[in-house]
Amino acid sequence: MIIDTLEVQDIDSFSRMELLREFYGIIWLLIPILTVVLGITLGVLVIVWLEREISAGIQQRIGPEYAGPLGILQALADGTKLLFKENLFPSRGDTRLFSIGPSIAVISILVSFLVVPFGYRLVLADLNIGVFLWIAISSIAPIGLLMSGYGSNNKYSFLGGLRAAAQSISYEIPLTLCVLSISLLSNSSSTIDIVEAQSKYGFWGWNLWRQPIGFIIFLISSLAECERLPFDLPEAEEELVAGYQTEYSGIKFGLFYVASYLNLLVSSLFVTVLYFGGWNIFIPDIYVSEFFEINKLGGVFGATIGIFITLTKTYLFLFIPITTRWTLPRLRMDQLLNLGWKFLLPISLGNLLLTTSSQLFSL
């Protein structure tokens, strides 16, 4: 059988075109992910700088001012310093658990950004169970902290890991009940649908006004999940030296702080999505579509406006947890558990029953 030379060239060119298409497909698949990772990194650096500046203002002292203009590069300098420091391992600890623990804490929170909408249809994965996927994934982070505490072969570290697990379990249930109430109001668990359900009446359509009790419970529970003061029992210096991160040094020590600020950022983004209307502005959707047509804008300009509005609401809300850290004292462990099990859980359950009843009567 004789094959023509032109046919061979056509087959080769076709195979090359297929390879190029697959290559470009992989690139276009990675571009959104890398963009989100870069944005998350910059967001964490901004939060660290904001916290240092706000805490300096509260305590009437000068914040960072030497590393870059207004000290904006101070967090980057600290991360670089930790990157080049030596990683020490406990002599009698479990090296594998000791190394894997910080990675699990960071990766589990990074995956949560998959379902966060930054603008109209601007989300990596629009899932029907988006908010509950966030809760399920974020519950993996305390396992990494427990592994770190156990692998350190240090009683203070192990107690810190146990406290982190107990605290997470205590406050995840009220948090989930609040999210379930929002899902009932929006008739969906998709983050995109929840934001769009709030856009009809503008500022007055936000779930903040329809779920004020749920918002307060969600705020307290998210602070406890992020281990922010007054809920930083897992790393209480007076009792546990530094908790689960006592034996860590170098970049592994820095990963715990990255996980903490990532968790704070994703919690603030979900507060914006669930209660503050997401990327929608204050004006009702009817007037926006008639006069400004912002929701109809497409392309880069429309996406930029959505991202700007979402991040503005997120960083305005961040003033609450940052200010709380420097104003309230730390709770005792029994007070923390009593607050979660005896107060927040019954109130969130009652809020869910009230929301369910109102939805049934409205049918």
From TrEMBL:
Transmembrane segment boundaries: 23-50, 97-119, 131-150, 255-277, 297-322, 343-361
Pfam families, per the entry: NADHdh (PF00146)
InterPro entries, per database record: NADH_UbQ_OxRdtase_su1/FPO, NADH_UbQ_OxRdtase_su1_CS
Catalytic reaction(s) noted: a plastoquinone + NADPH + (n+1) H(+)(in) = a plastoquinol + NADP(+) + n H(+)(out); a plastoquinone + NADH + (n+1) H(+)(in) = a plastoquinol + NAD(+) + n H(+)(out)
MF (Gene Ontology): NADH dehydrogenase activity; oxidoreductase activity, acting on NAD(P)H, quinone or similar compound as acceptor; quinone binding
GO cellular component: chloroplast thylakoid membrane; plasma membrane
EC number: 7.1.1.-
Membrane topology summary: Multi-pass membrane protein
Compartment(s) of residence: Cell membrane; Membrane; Plastid, Chloroplast thylakoid membrane
Signal peptide: none
Top-rank lineage group of the source organism: Eukaryota
Enzyme class: translocase
The entry's keywords: Chloroplast, Membrane, NAD, NADP, Plastid, Plastoquinone, Quinone, Thylakoid, Translocase, Transmembrane, Transmembrane helix
Keyword flag NADP: yes
Any one Gene Ontology BP term: photosynthesis, light reaction
The protein's role, per its UniProt record: NDH shuttles electrons from NAD(P)H:plastoquinone, via FMN and iron-sulfur (Fe-S) centers, to quinones in the photosynthetic chain and possibly in a chloroplast respiratory chain. The immediate electron acceptor for the enzyme in this species is believed to be plastoquinone. Couples the redox reaction to proton translocation, and thus conserves the redox energy in a proton gradient.
PANTHER family recorded: NADH DEHYDROGENASE SUBUNIT 1, NADH-UBIQUINONE OXIDOREDUCTASE CHAIN 1
Record's subunit section: NDH is composed of at least 16 different subunits, 5 of which are encoded in the nucleus.
Family classification: Belongs to the complex I subunit 1 family.
NCBIfam families hit by this protein: PRK06076.1-2
Record protein name field: NAD(P)H-quinone oxidoreductase subunit 1, chloroplastic
Species for this entry: Alchemilla argyrophylla
Annotated gene: ndhA
